[in-house]
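F.,

This is the one I mentioned.
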């Protein structure tokens, strides 16, 4: 049985998301079995890719790896992971591993099938089925309580630079774009995609007259996520 030695901080939590101060066991050096898949912390290590100077942007939620994440397994047991980030392109949690002198940088990619939810600061992610593929993806929960819940799914696209046919060269660099799709969830658990627009939210929430009035009186802009959340929270309160 092959074991991978990871120098990351691991904190075991017995309770749910609000029990982060109830830490029972702290392990600063941990071994994880990446072959059998029997351990929650299963996954695999890969060489960190060389930075591509021909493309702008990155595929990660954060620009640095100093983040701590609280990751929860399928039994709602939580682990605090240091030096972590969320790979939006791969929809996966990763840890940047310490690099020994003379060796290539590595990162550890966690097995998403063993994770139910995770938290980065005020970013709370859960697994939801957003299409007919049968697969579940990590989405950010913007509204977690009430009759209507709101989720944001993040994905990436490449915006290719213009191409000069005469010189057969690109006029600049390609760019990584972070894109978003929004979904509401009713009490029956079904997710429906919703556009960040006044007409979209009014239609989705049954053409509520009170809602129209609330948006008008408070001069809310539905293209702004914070205003969109405000409207749904108001709808949940009436």
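My design for it:
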């Amino acid at each position: 049985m092959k074991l991978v030695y990871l120098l990351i901080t691991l904190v075991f939590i017995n309770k749910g998301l609000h029990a982060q101060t109830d830490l029972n066991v702290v392990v600063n050096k941990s071994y994880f079995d990446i072959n059998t898949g029997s351990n929650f912390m299963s996954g695999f290590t890969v060489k960190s890719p060389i930075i591509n100077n021909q493309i702008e942007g990155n595929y990660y939620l954060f620009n640095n790896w100093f983040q701590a994440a609280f990751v929860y397994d399928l039994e709602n047991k939580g682990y605090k992971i240091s030096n972590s980030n969320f790979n939006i392109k791969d929809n996966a949690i990763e840890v940047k591993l310490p690099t020994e002198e003379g060796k290539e940088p590595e990162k550890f990619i966690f097995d998403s099938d063993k994770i139910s939810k995770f938290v980065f600061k005020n970013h709370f992610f859960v697994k939801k089925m957003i299409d007919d593929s049968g697969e579940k993806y990590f989405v950010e929960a913007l509204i977690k309580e009430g009759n209507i819940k709101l989720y944001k799914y993040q994905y990436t696209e490449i915006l290719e630079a213009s191409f000069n046919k005469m010189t057969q060269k690109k006029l600049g660099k390609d760019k990584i774009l972070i894109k978003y799709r929004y979904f509401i969830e009713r009490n029956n658990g079904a997710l429906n995609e919703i556009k960040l627009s006044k007409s979209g939210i009014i239609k989705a929430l049954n053409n509520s007259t009170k809602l129209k009035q609330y948006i008008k009186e408070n001069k809310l802009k539905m293209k702004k996520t914070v205003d969109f959340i405000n409207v749904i929270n108001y709808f949940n309160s009436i």
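The chain has two domains: 3-194, 195-238.

Talk soon.
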